[in-house]
Amino acid sequence: MKERIKTWVLALLVAGSLVESYYLIYRLPGSDSAILSENLYVKTDNMGPEEKVENLLYPDRMIIHMGGDKHTLFYPDSTFYDLILGRLKGRGFESFQRRPVQDFNWDQIRRENPGIELSFGAGIPVTLLQRVMQLSPDSLFEGESIDRIWIYNVKNDSKAHAVFFSTRGDIVYEAAKADLTVQDVQQHVDFGTNWMPYTAVNGDYYVPEQKLPLVEAELPSGMYTIEQMQSNLFFDAGSTRYIPEKDGSKIYTDSKRSLQVDQEQNWMSYSDPAALPAGDSTPAKDALEAVDFVNQHGGWNGTYRLASTEEDKQERKVSFQQYYGSYPILSKPQLQYGVINLELQQGTVSSYERSLMYTEEDQAVKTLVNLPGGEELKVKLARISSSSPVKDLIPAYIPVEQRESLRLVPVWRVTLEDGSVLTLN
C-alpha cells in the first residue's frame, strides 16, 4: 500500500514539474523561448483576404490617342480599360532595342499617331511586369523599371510599334517583335471614339472637355482592435507590454518588435528592427516580400495597386495604393487612410504601416456628382501653375470620417513640378 502511494505521489510531482516547465518556457511575459511552437501564433480575424501580386500590378490610367490631337482616358475597373488590358496581356513582346528617348518626337506621335499609352505611375520592375505581360527581356532590359508603355501605329508602316519607358527618363526600349497588328491597335483606339474628349496640356496631363461624372460614396465603417493587430503581428500576443506615450498614442512591445497605435488617426505602425536580413534584395523581390508580409499579417481590406518601390539609403520603401472603383483614395494629414507602407532592409520587412479603419463597400450609399472640366478647370489649373507648373492631373477620392461611416469625396489630384500635391473639387 505504501509503495502504491509513493508511486502516485512521484507521478504527481513529475506531472507538476512538467506543467511548471511549460509555463516557464512558453507563458512568462518577456521570456525568450528556446523552441517556438506553431500554436504560439494564432491568426484571429484578418483585415481582409490574401492577394496575388498579379492582381496588384496594373496601370493607373490608359490614354487613348486617336490622331488629329484627339485623346481620351480610361481608368481601372472600367469596361474598355479591362477589355484592352486583357487583350494586351495575351500578346508577346520581344527583341528589345535600347534607344535614347530623344530619338522620338513624342509630341508629334501624341498628336498624329493612333495609339494606346499605359501609365504605371512611379514605375514597375520589368521582372514583375513579366507576371502580367508576355515579355522576353534581355539581361539589360530585365534590370529596368518601367513607368510607361506606348503602343502606336505609324502612317504607311505595316507593323505596330511598342515602346517601354525606363523610369530613369533618358532611355526607352522598343520591341522589335510585337504580337500586335496595325489593325489590333486601331481597333483598341476606336473604343475611345465616342468617349469623353480630353485636351493634352504640354504633353504632361490631360483635361476633360466636359464635366467629369463621378460617384460620391458613404460607406459604413468600423475599427480593427488593438488585440487583433497584436495577434496578427506578434508570435505571442500575451507576452507584450504596454508603454503609454505623451502624445496619446499607445505602444505595445515584446522587447523585440513594437506596435504603435495613433488612435486619433486610426493608424498603426509596426516595427521589427531585429528582423534577420534575407540578404538578396531587388525592387521586384522586395515587392513580392511586401505582398507576402501583408498576406500573412492582416490581408487586404479592399482593392490595391502597387504604387512604388523606392530605394532610400539602406532601405526600400514599398507602397500600395487603395482604390474605390476606378480611382485612388488619397491619404491626408487629418486622416491617414488608403495606403499600406512597408520598409525592407536587405529583403526583410522592418516596418509596416496601415489604417485600422475598414469599410463595408457593399453597403455604400452612392450619389452622382460632377468634377469641373473644360474651361472652368483650365482656369483653375492656370492659377495654380503660376507658382509651379502642373505635371499631373487625375481624379481621386478624399476620405472624410463621419460618426459611423467614411465618406469618399471626388476631387482632382493635382501634382506640381516641385512634387507637391493639391486637390480641387
TrEMBL record:
<dbReference type="Pfam" id="PF07435">
    <property type="entry name" value="YycH"/>
</dbReference>
<feature type="domain" description="Regulatory protein YycH">
    <location>
        <begin position="3"/>
        <end position="418"/>
    </location>
</feature>
<dbReference type="InterPro" id="IPR042274">
    <property type="entry name" value="YycH/YycI_2"/>
</dbReference>
<protein>
    <recommendedName>
        <fullName>Regulatory protein YycH domain-containing protein</fullName>
    </recommendedName>
</protein>
<dbReference type="InterPro" id="IPR009996">
    <property type="entry name" value="YycH"/>
</dbReference>
